[in-house]
Amino acid sequence: MLVEIRNLRVQFPTATGLSDAVRDVSLTLGQEKLGIVGESGSGKSLTARSIMRLLPGNARISADRLAFDGIDLLRADEATLRKIRGGRAGLIMQDPKYSLNPVMTAGAQIAEAWRVHRGGSRKAAGQAALDLLTQVQIRDPERVARAYPHELSGGMGQRVMIAMMLAPDPELLIADEPTSALDATVQAEILRLIEDLVSRRGMGLILISHDLPLVSHFCDRVAVMYAGRIVEELAANELTRAKHPYTRGLLDCLPSLTHPQARLKVMQRDPSWLT
Ligand SMILES: Nc1ncnc2c1ncn2[C@@H]1O[C@H](COP(=O)(O)OP(=O)(O)O)[C@@H](O)[C@H]1O
Ligand SMILES: [Mg+2]
Known about the structure:
The protein is of the alpha/beta class. Helices cover 35% and strands 24% of the residues. The longest helix is centred in the last third of the chain and has 18 residues, at 184-201.
């Protein structure tokens, strides 16, 4: 098992005591594609980042079990965690602008990521960077390798980010709203690319999004989060059989091309969902 999470809790101190941002979350992941959906603030990012122990400094984390490939992440030392972060597990975030170094060319950044994890000569790393740019389906890798982040479009920047994440040959990819900043066509291309890389390399994928249909299209399984909890977990092709009213609500609020409505439904939330 690549990831095991049992009863994960993430809390933050507030004026009135600790408040739960993630509670009783349990998940497992093998070489498969898991989607996590839910509205903003439901705890998706904190759950995924717990796997890399990349949480805000004031967060308190606890779990009955939190493991990556059998390694107990709550007891692992910093050196072990560093090997997992950006090595055995890669994180792709929404905006490459904040993750790429603005004063280094794309090629140099990928080559450096390669050398940190695999060693070897500068020349070999440079060649590896071009290979990786080709793998993320960039047609003119030499030109892109010489470009600085601000010279790249959003979609191109995201491809460079993905190439960098692939450099250490990770076993797990966490994509946290990787395409929210992109327009719809580029979004579909990037997701197809991620899907293709994940299946060809046999990685596990956690794809986070607030877009339920999109996630169910690209993933095998979907966990639906609401207010810090997983309220429902389903095979992606069984979405229409969702039972939880929040999941049903997400489905009912979708605009339909075949049955257009004058006004979209607005979801009614029930306080009982919180308990
Ligand atoms: N640094 C922080 N300090 C205090 N509370 C936080 C912090 N980061 C996140 N939270 C709380 O955790 C909740 C879940 O955050 P997050 O996992 O980022 O949500 P999502 O990714 O689903 O939008 C937020 O709604 C917020 O209440
Ligand atoms: Mg988030």
